Structure formats: structure tokens, C-alpha cells
Amino acid sequence: MDQHFTMQRVCTWAAPACTLVFFGAFAIAGYLVPPSPGASPQETADFYANNTDTIRLGLVLMCFAGGLWIIWSAQMTNQMLRIEGRSAPLAWTQLAMGTCACIEFIMPAYFWLTASYRERDPEMQQMLNDMGWLPFDGFVWTIIWQNAVIGAAVLMDKRATPLFPRWYGYMSIWVAFLYLPSGFNVFFKDGPLAWNGAISWWLLLASIFGWLMVTTYLLLQAVARQERETAAGTLAGDPISDLERRVALLERQAQAEERVHA
Amino acid sequence: MTVLATESLEEPGARVSTRRRVPGEVGIWVLILGDLVVFTYIFAVFLAERSNEPVVFAAGSEHLNQNYGIIYTLILLLSSLYVVRALHRLRSADGHAAARNFLGAFACGLAFLALKVTEWMHEADAGHTLTSDHFFTFYFLMTGLHALHLVIGLFLLIYLAVLARRPAPGRSQWILFEGGACFWHMVDFLWMVIFPLLYLMP
């Protein structure tokens, strides 16, 4: 059975690509350091009026990061299926959560792009700006579960040498907690929990992308190990390949019996 | 921390291993050290904000009841002592005594939580909330996050008490005992830093 190692690796590299695209695009748009929630409507309107081209370009590019997020999530589900087998609630939850996370990148971008599209009343520009920033930080409601189910699956792995190291399971669950405070940015116009705050923005960024880099590395390790074991014929404990091995064994036994009776 | 040095994975009667070994397992330490790093970051942000608004922060700190703070500290120290005793009893294969000690720690933790909630309600009544000023944002954030860890620790302690009563704990149970104990000590340790930062700084 072809395990598609090359394509697995390609899909894993979507994660660093997502990171690069996100940071690069946001830097172009001038969004890496968020504006303060306390900025006046006029200041907000001026920001969109004075930086229209870079905002549009940067944010359109940033939308690519949304799609890339789904691609690496699918590869994660692919590996999680090797832990859970045919009955895989966690693997499928992970995929669904990763897919929804894409919205988190793209919808806010379109609110901001709408603000950059025409000159408007400053109050309306402020509203569009708010509509983007509040969910951009605050939309943690899928990534917390994405992390949690990955962590749970890693810790549930019954192999002698687990597919992912156990510390990664703990880490994933722990990082989910780090995302949580950002969800409460609606309560604040300033301070560490506001959308531009040390916790809601900077800790969130560091957590997501730091964890993503660790995840990339471990996914690549898992694929490499899968490739080695397939070549050596020692791919053990994979629920689906176990099934194939048993079928192959039964086929050999059936053929041996045929020869005996022939 | 000499407490950690003596907590080892030797089951009674087992040969002493000369390989370097981590209490619990590596994963727990990623979690604990990671948590400590993040809390350090939050403390640093707190101190930076404090230097920006010394008057607000000093006023907030004065307003808090230092006696409460001392009581909290003593309660948590006692709870950590119970946890140490529990692990001791486990090593002497006295599961029931260990369970009692875990429950003692649980009781202390529960007392801490009850007092904490009372203090929060008292502050809210006085008009201090998460959004009233920057000091109280940090106050509720730091004590809230700490309380979240404490609550997780409480569930853990109950589970460890139940586990301790079962006979012949194996390796994976020991990982839970040691890892859980270390997690609880971390909860205690975090309070040791939060208390002076919030309650004692002039």
C-alpha cells in the first residue's frame, strides 16, 4: 500500500509555509503591531486611508495562510489515524477544527479589506476595524480543541515507542490553555488582555506558531519513521496495516492449503 | 528543591537504578517548566505596567488584605506538606495513609479556593473588577489563572487519592503520583511569587 510519503511531507511543510505567509503578509499590511482599541474613529479611518495599497496587498496574501492551515491539519489527521485506527473521533475532530480555524484567518481579513475598499464615515471604519480585530485574536474556539484532541491522541498512543513523544501530548494540551485568555479580549480596551495586549496578541502568536514549529518537526519525524519501518517491513502497531498483514497471512495460508490439496 | 531529590521512582523492594531519571515523566516537566515560563512572562508584564502607573498599582496593592495573603500561603504550604507525606506513605506501600494525605491536601486546596472566591466577591463589591483599573486586571488575571491551576490540581488530588487505595501501583501509576505531586508543588510555588507581587510590593 503506497503511503504517499512525499505528499505527506509536502502537506507537513504547509505549516511553516503558513507561518511565513502569515508573518510576511501581516508585516506588509502593517498589522503585526495591532492598533490600540483606544484609537479614535478618525485615527482608524486615517490608517485605512493612508495605507490603502499595502493593507489590501498584505491582507489578500494573508488569506493564503488560512488555506495552508487546513493542509497541515489534514496531514496531522492522517498520522492520528495511525494512532486511533478505523474508529477515530479525535482525528476527525482535529480535521474539522483545523478547517474552521481557516475562517479565523480569512473572515477578519475581509472586514479589514472592506474598510480599505472605500472612504467612509470614521465611525463605520472603526466598526469594521473592530469586527476584524476582535475575532482575529479572540477566535480561539476551534484551535483550543484542535490542540486538545491532538494532545489526547498522543497520550493515548499504546505503541511501545509512541508515534509522537509523550511530552508533545502534554505540551499540546498545555498550549491550548495559553490560547484561552485571548478569547476574552472583548472585555478590554487596554491592558494585557486587549486585542493588542501582551497576552491576547503576543503570547497567542508565540504559542500558536511556536507550537506549530514543534508540530512540523514531529510530523516530519513521524513520516520518516513510517518510511523506514515500511522499507524494513517492521511497520508494527498500525491498525490498518495490521489488518493488511493479517489478510496477507490468511492469503498465504489459503494458498499453502491449496497446494497441499492440489 | 530537596523535596524533588528524595522523590524517586523506586517501588518498595525494587533495585535502585543508577540511570538518571526524571520524577514523573519528561512530558510533565515540559508542562511545568512551560507554565513557569509563561507565568514569568506575565509577571514581567505586570512589573512593566507597574512602573508605568506606580500610583494606581500602589493603591491597589495597599487595598488588598495582607493577612488573607499570609493565610493563603500557609494553607498551600500545608497542602504541599500533605502531598510530600502522601508520596512517603506510598513508598512504604501504605496506600490508605497516602490517600488520607492526598485528601488532606485537597481539603487545604478547597479552603484556599473558598477564601479566594470570597476575596474576589469582596473586591467586586468594593467596585474593583477585571476592567476597573490595570492593577485589578492583573490581580484577577493572575489569581484567576492560579486558581484555574489549583482547580485542575484538586481534581488531580482526588484521582490520586483513589489511585493510592488500589493495591500494587505499577510504573504508570507512579508516573501519575510523582507527576501529580510535582504539579501541585508548582501550584504552591506560583503562589509564592504571586503573593509578594500583588500583596507586598510597596
Largest sheet of chain B, in brief, is:
none
Number of helices of chain B: 7
Global shape of chain B: elongated
Compute the number of strand runs of chain B: 0
Please state the CA-atom Rg of chain B, rounded to the nearest Å.
19 Å
What is the rounded distance between the termini of chain A?
A: 31 Å
| SSE pattern of chain A | HHHHHHHHH
Measured on Cα atoms, how large is the radius of gyration of chain A?
23 Å
Mean pLDDT of chain B comes to 87
Distance between the termini of chain B: 29 Å
Main pleated-sheet profile of chain A: none
User: SS-based structural class of chain A?
Assistant: mainly alpha
Structural class determined from secondary elements of chain B: mainly alpha
Total strands of chain A: 0
Keywords (chain A): Membrane, Transmembrane, Transmembrane helix
Protein name (chain A): DUF4386 domain-containing protein
Transmembrane segments (chain A): 12-34, 54-74, 95-113, 133-155, 167-187, 199-220
Subcellular location (chain B): Cell membrane; Membrane
Brief summary of the model shown:
Chain B: Keywords: Membrane, Transmembrane, Transmembrane helix. Chain B: Residues 1-202 form the Heme-copper oxidase subunit III family profile domain. Chain A is mostly helical.
Describe the structure.
The complex is a heterodimer of chains A (262) and B (202). Chain A has 262 residues and is an all-alpha fold. Chain A contains 9 helices and no strands. Chain A is elongated, with a radius of gyration of 23 Å. Chain B has 202 residues and is mainly α. Helix content of chain B is 79%, strand content 0%. Chain B has 7 helices and no strands. Chain B has helices at 2-6, 26-52, 54-63, 66-91, 95-125, 134-164, 171-200. In chain B, α2 packs across α3. The longest helix of chain B is centred in the middle third of the chain and has 31 residues, at 95-125. The A-B interface holds A 155, 165-171, 173-174, 177-178, 181, 187-188, 190-193, 198-199, 203 and B 25-31, 34-35, 38, 41-42, 45, 49, 130-131, 134, 137-138, 141, 145, 148.
